[in-house]
Amino acid sequence: MNISQLRTFQKVALTGSFTRAARELILTQPAVSQQIKALEHMYGVRLFDRQGKTIQLTHQGDILFTKVTSILNELRDIEKIFEEMSDLTIGKIDIASTAVFSTYFLPKTMGVFNNKYPGIELELHTGNSHTVITKLLDGSTDFGFGGVVKSEPDIQFLLIHQEPYVFVVGSEHPLALRTQISVDDLKAFPFIWREHGTLTRRKMEEMLGGTQSTLIFKNLIEVQNVETAKRLVEGGYGVTIIPKIAIRREREAGWLREVRLEGLDLKASYYLLHSRKRTLSRHAEAFLRLLPKTVKLSGNKDLIGVLNQ
After folding, report:
1. Per the confidence metrics, is the pTM higher than 0.85?
2. Minimal CB count within 10 Å: which of 21, 44, 136, 280?
3. How many CB atoms neighbour CB 22 within 10 A?
Protein backbone atom coordinates (compact mmCIF):
# COMPACT_ATOMS: atom_id res chain seq x y z
CA MET A 1 0.00 0.00 0.00
CA ASN A 2 1.22 3.49 -0.83
CA ILE A 3 -0.11 7.04 -0.79
CA SER A 4 -0.81 6.98 -4.52
CA GLN A 5 -3.08 3.95 -4.13
CA LEU A 6 -4.95 5.60 -1.25
CA ARG A 7 -5.49 8.78 -3.24
CA THR A 8 -6.73 6.79 -6.22
CA PHE A 9 -9.11 4.80 -4.02
CA GLN A 10 -10.49 8.00 -2.46
CA LYS A 11 -10.97 9.62 -5.88
CA VAL A 12 -12.84 6.59 -7.28
CA ALA A 13 -15.07 6.54 -4.19
CA LEU A 14 -15.82 10.26 -4.47
CA THR A 15 -16.50 10.29 -8.21
CA GLY A 16 -18.22 6.90 -8.39
CA SER A 17 -16.37 6.27 -11.63
CA PHE A 18 -13.04 4.78 -12.69
CA THR A 19 -13.11 6.91 -15.83
CA ARG A 20 -13.71 10.20 -14.03
CA ALA A 21 -11.17 9.31 -11.35
CA ALA A 22 -8.56 8.58 -14.03
CA ARG A 23 -9.31 11.89 -15.76
CA GLU A 24 -9.00 13.95 -12.55
CA LEU A 25 -5.84 12.14 -11.46
CA ILE A 26 -4.35 12.39 -14.97
CA LEU A 27 -3.93 8.61 -15.14
CA THR A 28 -5.10 5.96 -17.56
CA GLN A 29 -8.18 3.98 -16.60
CA PRO A 30 -6.19 0.69 -16.56
CA ALA A 31 -3.74 2.30 -14.12
CA VAL A 32 -6.60 3.26 -11.81
CA SER A 33 -8.12 -0.23 -12.02
CA GLN A 34 -4.73 -1.79 -11.29
CA GLN A 35 -4.24 0.29 -8.13
CA ILE A 36 -7.69 -0.63 -6.81
CA LYS A 37 -7.07 -4.31 -7.54
CA ALA A 38 -3.75 -4.08 -5.68
CA LEU A 39 -5.54 -2.74 -2.58
CA GLU A 40 -8.24 -5.40 -2.79
CA HIS A 41 -5.60 -8.10 -3.14
CA MET A 42 -3.63 -6.71 -0.18
CA TYR A 43 -6.63 -6.75 2.18
CA GLY A 44 -8.36 -9.75 0.66
CA VAL A 45 -11.66 -7.91 0.27
CA ARG A 46 -13.74 -6.26 -2.43
CA LEU A 47 -13.79 -2.50 -2.06
CA PHE A 48 -16.36 -1.72 -4.76
CA ASP A 49 -19.47 -3.38 -6.09
CA ARG A 50 -19.65 -2.89 -9.83
CA GLN A 51 -23.17 -2.59 -11.21
CA GLY A 52 -22.95 -1.85 -14.88
CA LYS A 53 -21.45 1.59 -15.36
CA THR A 54 -21.88 2.53 -11.71
CA ILE A 55 -19.84 1.47 -8.70
CA GLN A 56 -20.54 1.61 -4.99
CA LEU A 57 -18.41 1.11 -1.93
CA THR A 58 -18.81 -2.21 -0.18
CA HIS A 59 -19.07 -2.29 3.61
CA GLN A 60 -15.32 -2.94 3.81
CA GLY A 61 -14.72 -0.21 1.26
CA ASP A 62 -16.76 2.23 3.31
CA ILE A 63 -14.64 1.50 6.39
CA LEU A 64 -11.45 1.99 4.39
CA PHE A 65 -12.79 5.21 2.88
CA THR A 66 -13.30 6.73 6.34
CA LYS A 67 -9.77 5.81 7.41
CA VAL A 68 -8.18 6.89 4.13
CA THR A 69 -9.93 10.26 4.25
CA SER A 70 -8.53 10.85 7.73
CA ILE A 71 -5.02 9.79 6.67
CA LEU A 72 -4.99 11.99 3.58
CA ASN A 73 -6.32 14.97 5.54
CA GLU A 74 -3.51 14.53 8.06
CA LEU A 75 -1.01 14.23 5.23
CA ARG A 76 -2.27 17.47 3.69
CA ASP A 77 -1.92 19.19 7.06
CA ILE A 78 1.67 17.94 7.33
CA GLU A 79 2.47 19.12 3.81
CA LYS A 80 0.95 22.52 4.59
CA ILE A 81 3.01 22.85 7.76
CA PHE A 82 6.26 22.13 5.94
CA GLU A 83 5.31 24.42 3.08
CA GLU A 84 4.66 27.21 5.56
CA MET A 85 7.90 26.46 7.41
CA SER A 86 9.78 26.50 4.12
CA ASP A 87 8.16 29.85 3.29
CA LEU A 88 9.03 31.18 6.78
CA THR A 89 5.31 31.48 7.53
CA ILE A 90 5.38 29.55 10.80
CA GLY A 91 8.03 28.12 13.10
CA LYS A 92 10.06 28.77 16.22
CA ILE A 93 13.59 29.91 17.04
CA ASP A 94 15.17 29.30 20.45
CA ILE A 95 18.00 31.72 21.23
CA ALA A 96 20.32 31.66 24.25
CA SER A 97 22.31 34.77 25.09
CA THR A 98 24.29 36.50 27.77
CA ALA A 99 22.56 39.44 29.44
CA VAL A 100 24.38 42.31 27.74
CA PHE A 101 23.93 40.93 24.23
CA SER A 102 20.27 40.08 24.80
CA THR A 103 19.57 43.52 26.28
CA TYR A 104 21.50 45.84 23.97
CA PHE A 105 21.96 43.97 20.68
CA LEU A 106 19.08 41.55 20.10
CA PRO A 107 15.91 43.64 20.73
CA LYS A 108 16.16 45.61 17.48
CA THR A 109 16.73 42.48 15.40
CA MET A 110 13.93 40.61 17.15
CA GLY A 111 11.51 43.47 16.54
CA VAL A 112 12.33 43.74 12.84
CA PHE A 113 12.22 39.95 12.46
CA ASN A 114 8.81 39.73 14.15
CA ASN A 115 7.38 42.38 11.84
CA LYS A 116 8.74 40.55 8.81
CA TYR A 117 7.86 37.01 9.94
CA PRO A 118 4.97 37.33 12.45
CA GLY A 119 4.20 33.61 12.38
CA ILE A 120 7.63 32.62 13.68
CA GLU A 121 7.89 32.48 17.46
CA LEU A 122 11.07 33.80 19.07
CA GLU A 123 12.10 32.50 22.49
CA LEU A 124 15.05 34.15 24.24
CA HIS A 125 16.84 32.53 27.19
CA THR A 126 19.24 34.79 29.09
CA GLY A 127 22.11 33.55 31.25
CA ASN A 128 25.89 33.64 31.51
CA SER A 129 28.21 32.18 28.87
CA HIS A 130 28.39 28.83 30.65
CA THR A 131 24.59 28.57 30.56
CA VAL A 132 24.54 29.40 26.85
CA ILE A 133 27.06 26.65 26.06
CA THR A 134 25.18 24.14 28.23
CA LYS A 135 21.94 24.81 26.35
CA LEU A 136 23.72 24.36 23.02
CA LEU A 137 25.27 21.07 24.13
CA ASP A 138 21.95 19.64 25.35
CA GLY A 139 20.22 20.70 22.11
CA SER A 140 17.64 22.97 23.74
CA THR A 141 18.53 26.08 21.71
CA ASP A 142 19.19 26.82 18.04
CA PHE A 143 22.15 29.14 18.55
CA GLY A 144 23.57 31.45 21.18
CA PHE A 145 25.56 34.59 21.87
CA GLY A 146 28.18 35.10 24.55
CA GLY A 147 31.81 35.22 25.57
CA VAL A 148 33.86 32.05 25.29
CA VAL A 149 34.21 30.32 28.67
CA LYS A 150 36.21 27.36 27.39
CA SER A 151 36.80 25.58 24.12
CA GLU A 152 34.21 22.94 23.27
CA PRO A 153 34.87 20.62 20.30
CA ASP A 154 31.15 20.39 19.50
CA ILE A 155 30.58 24.16 19.54
CA GLN A 156 31.46 26.63 16.79
CA PHE A 157 32.60 30.05 18.00
CA LEU A 158 32.42 32.98 15.59
CA LEU A 159 33.65 36.39 16.79
CA ILE A 160 31.03 38.93 15.74
CA HIS A 161 31.67 41.97 17.92
CA GLN A 162 34.06 43.63 20.36
CA GLU A 163 32.68 46.25 22.72
CA PRO A 164 34.90 48.53 24.85
CA TYR A 165 34.44 48.61 28.63
CA VAL A 166 34.17 51.94 30.42
CA PHE A 167 34.12 53.05 34.04
CA VAL A 168 30.95 54.92 34.92
CA VAL A 169 29.91 57.27 37.71
CA GLY A 170 26.84 59.38 38.39
CA SER A 171 26.75 62.96 37.11
CA GLU A 172 27.17 64.33 40.67
CA HIS A 173 29.93 61.91 41.68
CA PRO A 174 33.28 63.40 42.85
CA LEU A 175 35.05 61.64 39.96
CA ALA A 176 32.60 62.87 37.32
CA LEU A 177 34.73 65.86 36.31
CA ARG A 178 38.05 64.01 36.32
CA THR A 179 39.58 63.40 32.88
CA GLN A 180 41.47 60.34 34.10
CA ILE A 181 41.50 58.20 37.23
CA SER A 182 43.66 55.42 38.67
CA VAL A 183 42.86 52.20 40.50
CA ASP A 184 43.84 53.96 43.73
CA ASP A 185 41.11 56.54 43.08
CA LEU A 186 38.55 53.75 42.91
CA LYS A 187 39.45 52.38 46.33
CA ALA A 188 37.79 55.31 48.07
CA PHE A 189 34.35 54.56 46.62
CA PRO A 190 31.90 51.66 46.67
CA PHE A 191 32.36 49.42 43.67
CA ILE A 192 29.45 47.69 41.92
CA TRP A 193 30.47 44.25 40.77
CA ARG A 194 28.81 41.70 38.47
CA GLU A 195 28.24 38.14 39.64
CA HIS A 196 30.64 35.24 39.03
CA GLY A 197 30.44 33.66 35.57
CA THR A 198 29.71 36.88 33.68
CA LEU A 199 31.96 38.30 31.00
CA THR A 200 32.06 41.68 32.77
CA ARG A 201 33.26 40.07 36.00
CA ARG A 202 35.98 38.09 34.19
CA LYS A 203 37.20 41.18 32.36
CA MET A 204 37.41 43.21 35.57
CA GLU A 205 39.35 40.46 37.32
CA GLU A 206 41.62 40.25 34.29
CA MET A 207 42.39 43.96 34.52
CA LEU A 208 42.98 43.98 38.28
CA GLY A 209 45.01 40.81 38.36
CA GLY A 210 42.87 37.83 39.30
CA THR A 211 39.96 36.71 41.44
CA GLN A 212 41.45 38.27 44.59
CA SER A 213 40.96 41.73 43.09
CA THR A 214 37.92 42.30 45.32
CA LEU A 215 40.32 42.79 48.22
CA ILE A 216 41.37 46.24 46.95
CA PHE A 217 37.89 47.65 47.54
CA LYS A 218 36.63 48.56 51.00
CA ASN A 219 32.99 48.54 49.99
CA LEU A 220 31.70 46.17 47.34
CA ILE A 221 28.24 45.24 46.11
CA GLU A 222 27.51 42.37 43.73
CA VAL A 223 24.57 42.67 41.33
CA GLN A 224 22.93 40.32 38.86
CA ASN A 225 22.59 42.61 35.85
CA VAL A 226 23.90 45.74 34.15
CA GLU A 227 20.66 47.68 34.61
CA THR A 228 20.89 47.39 38.40
CA ALA A 229 24.51 48.54 38.30
CA LYS A 230 23.54 51.56 36.18
CA ARG A 231 20.67 52.57 38.45
CA LEU A 232 22.87 52.37 41.56
CA VAL A 233 25.56 54.53 39.99
CA GLU A 234 22.99 56.96 38.62
CA GLY A 235 21.63 57.31 42.14
CA GLY A 236 25.08 58.27 43.42
CA TYR A 237 26.19 54.92 44.78
CA GLY A 238 29.77 54.20 43.77
CA VAL A 239 31.48 53.25 40.53
CA THR A 240 31.01 50.42 38.05
CA ILE A 241 32.50 49.10 34.82
CA ILE A 242 30.20 48.08 31.99
CA PRO A 243 30.19 47.75 28.19
CA LYS A 244 29.98 51.17 26.57
CA ILE A 245 26.85 50.32 24.57
CA ALA A 246 24.93 49.93 27.84
CA ILE A 247 25.18 53.62 28.78
CA ARG A 248 24.47 55.34 25.46
CA ARG A 249 21.10 56.78 26.48
CA GLU A 250 22.16 57.70 30.02
CA ARG A 251 25.33 59.38 28.76
CA GLU A 252 23.39 61.42 26.19
CA ALA A 253 20.88 62.45 28.87
CA GLY A 254 23.69 63.49 31.24
CA TRP A 255 22.74 61.02 33.97
CA LEU A 256 25.98 59.04 33.81
CA ARG A 257 29.55 60.07 33.15
CA GLU A 258 32.23 57.96 31.56
CA VAL A 259 35.62 58.23 33.30
CA ARG A 260 38.87 57.02 31.81
CA LEU A 261 40.91 54.63 33.93
CA GLU A 262 44.65 54.90 33.49
CA GLY A 263 45.90 51.97 31.41
CA LEU A 264 42.44 50.55 30.75
CA ASP A 265 41.99 48.96 27.34
CA LEU A 266 39.43 46.24 27.89
CA LYS A 267 36.99 44.97 25.32
CA ALA A 268 34.21 42.44 25.60
CA SER A 269 34.32 39.85 22.83
CA TYR A 270 30.94 38.53 21.76
CA TYR A 271 30.60 35.32 19.80
CA LEU A 272 27.91 33.57 17.84
CA LEU A 273 27.81 30.02 19.18
CA HIS A 274 26.34 27.04 17.37
CA SER A 275 26.38 23.29 17.91
CA ARG A 276 28.23 21.36 15.21
CA LYS A 277 25.67 18.57 15.68
CA ARG A 278 22.69 20.75 14.83
CA THR A 279 21.72 22.04 11.39
CA LEU A 280 20.47 25.61 11.30
CA SER A 281 16.82 25.85 10.27
CA ARG A 282 15.76 28.27 7.55
CA HIS A 283 14.18 30.36 10.29
CA ALA A 284 17.45 30.56 12.21
CA GLU A 285 19.38 31.42 9.05
CA ALA A 286 16.91 34.22 8.29
CA PHE A 287 17.42 35.67 11.78
CA LEU A 288 21.21 35.53 11.54
CA ARG A 289 21.18 37.18 8.12
CA LEU A 290 19.10 39.99 9.59
CA LEU A 291 21.26 40.55 12.69
CA PRO A 292 24.20 42.42 11.05
CA LYS A 293 21.71 44.49 9.03
CA THR A 294 19.91 45.79 12.13
CA VAL A 295 22.73 46.27 14.66
CA LYS A 296 26.28 47.53 14.29
CA LEU A 297 28.74 44.65 14.66
CA SER A 298 32.50 45.07 14.48
CA GLY A 299 33.21 41.45 13.58
CA ASN A 300 32.27 39.03 10.83
CA LYS A 301 29.04 39.93 8.99
CA ASP A 302 28.68 36.73 6.93
CA LEU A 303 27.41 34.64 9.83
CA ILE A 304 25.78 31.88 7.77
CA GLY A 305 28.67 31.53 5.35
CA VAL A 306 31.20 31.00 8.13
CA LEU A 307 29.03 28.54 10.08
CA ASN A 308 28.45 26.45 6.95
CA GLN A 309 32.14 26.13 6.13
Report:
1. no
2. 44
3. 20
